[in-house]
Amino acid sequence: EGALDLLKSLTGYTMTIQLLQTTRIGVAVNSMRKHCSDEEVVASAKILIKNWKRLLGERWWGEAGLPAPPKPQISPGHPGTPNPRCSPGGSGRDSADSRSSTASAISSSSSPQKRLANSNKGKAETPRTPPAPFSPSPCLLAPRYLTGDSVRDKCIEMLTAALRMDDDYKELGVNCEKMASEIEDHILWGGRGTDMKYRNRVRSRISNLKDPKNPSLRRNVLCGAILPSLIARMTAEEMASDELKELRNAMTQEAIREHQMAKTGGTVTDLFQCGKCKKKNCTYNQVQTRSADEPMTTFVLCNECGNRWKVC
């Protein structure tokens, strides 16, 4: 439905060769005509391309990205070649010789054609690489959200799809295209155009909004708890789920305790046996890691192999 509305809106534009060359809209409409399964959309695209061809003339079709007409196929037969069977006069041996020479000529001329066809067949069977995430393709955004930049339009389209991961946006009455356009606008003006930093920031937002383990982020954005300007500048740590934040906090505290224990000399003892080297040359420290009424945690370091463990 969005593609059909876009094609209808393009019908009213006054198209020029310069506009077709700069926007490459002819390539996008032709690609939509080839790959779309909706017959009404395909018919509208054909009419639009036909009108542009009539407007520009045949010599501008290639430069504007419009498809060229199919070339007429040349029949394999050679006109003007006399048929040896219908030639007047001549003996049966002459006609047989002419038929054999004609057959050998045809077979010799067809052999390079067969080789060419086989080589073309081998080339056609070569697997194609998948398109890049930001490769130019038909954009299905509403015309009022188009920016004129194919990279920006594709980013807005992917952000819209990320916001529509679930149907809850319908219950909230959120215009996902408008919200995605606002997020992309803040990301753009926070950097220097559509460079690699801009693309990485867009990818980071899309992956976090689509994360099934972090549905609260997308819900908070849809509800307005997280504004488009805020999510545009949030870091990966800030967009992470609560579970991942708790895990990171626990790992940070553990690293701090190990760092503090490394600075403390500790007490050398032979009361503990290392589980790796089975020796008893160890150093231990006691740290209060839990509440005050709980016993202290003993951290043990093997002075022989460097193995560490704790005893609660």
Automatic annotation (TrEMBL):
<keyword id="KW-0862">Zinc</keyword>
<feature type="domain" description="TFIIS central">
    <location>
        <begin position="151"/>
        <end position="267"/>
    </location>
</feature>
<protein>
    <recommendedName>
        <fullName>Transcription elongation factor</fullName>
    </recommendedName>
</protein>
<dbReference type="GO" id="GO:0006368">
    <property type="term" value="P:transcription elongation by RNA polymerase II"/>
</dbReference>
<feature type="compositionally biased region" description="Low complexity">
    <location>
        <begin position="98"/>
        <end position="112"/>
    </location>
</feature>
<dbReference type="Pfam" id="PF01096">
    <property type="entry name" value="Zn_ribbon_TFIIS"/>
</dbReference>
<keyword id="KW-0238">DNA-binding</keyword>
<dbReference type="Pfam" id="PF08711">
    <property type="entry name" value="Med26"/>
</dbReference>
<comment type="similarity">
    <text>Belongs to the TFS-II family.</text>
</comment>
<keyword id="KW-0804">Transcription</keyword>
<keyword id="KW-0863">Zinc-finger</keyword>
<dbReference type="InterPro" id="IPR035100">
    <property type="entry name" value="TF_IIS-typ"/>
</dbReference>
<feature type="domain" description="TFIIS-type">
    <location>
        <begin position="270"/>
        <end position="310"/>
    </location>
</feature>
<dbReference type="InterPro" id="IPR035441">
    <property type="entry name" value="TFIIS/LEDGF_dom_sf"/>
</dbReference>
<dbReference type="InterPro" id="IPR003617">
    <property type="entry name" value="TFIIS/CRSP70_N_sub"/>
</dbReference>
<feature type="domain" description="TFIIS N-terminal">
    <location>
        <begin position="1"/>
        <end position="59"/>
    </location>
</feature>
<dbReference type="GO" id="GO:0008270">
    <property type="term" value="F:zinc ion binding"/>
</dbReference>
<keyword id="KW-0479">Metal-binding</keyword>
<comment type="function">
    <text>Necessary for efficient RNA polymerase II transcription elongation past template-encoded arresting sites. The arresting sites in DNA have the property of trapping a certain fraction of elongating RNA polymerases that pass through, resulting in locked ternary complexes. Cleavage of the nascent transcript by S-II allows the resumption of elongation from the new 3'-terminus.</text>
</comment>
<keyword id="KW-0805">Transcription regulation</keyword>
<dbReference type="GO" id="GO:0005634">
    <property type="term" value="C:nucleus"/>
</dbReference>
<dbReference type="InterPro" id="IPR001222">
    <property type="entry name" value="Znf_TFIIS"/>
</dbReference>
<feature type="region of interest" description="Disordered">
    <location>
        <begin position="66"/>
        <end position="139"/>
    </location>
</feature>
<dbReference type="InterPro" id="IPR036575">
    <property type="entry name" value="TFIIS_cen_dom_sf"/>
</dbReference>
<dbReference type="InterPro" id="IPR006289">
    <property type="entry name" value="TFSII"/>
</dbReference>
<dbReference type="InterPro" id="IPR017923">
    <property type="entry name" value="TFIIS_N"/>
</dbReference>
<dbReference type="InterPro" id="IPR003618">
    <property type="entry name" value="TFIIS_cen_dom"/>
</dbReference>
<dbReference type="GO" id="GO:0003677">
    <property type="term" value="F:DNA binding"/>
</dbReference>
<dbReference type="Pfam" id="PF07500">
    <property type="entry name" value="TFIIS_M"/>
</dbReference>
<keyword id="KW-0539">Nucleus</keyword>
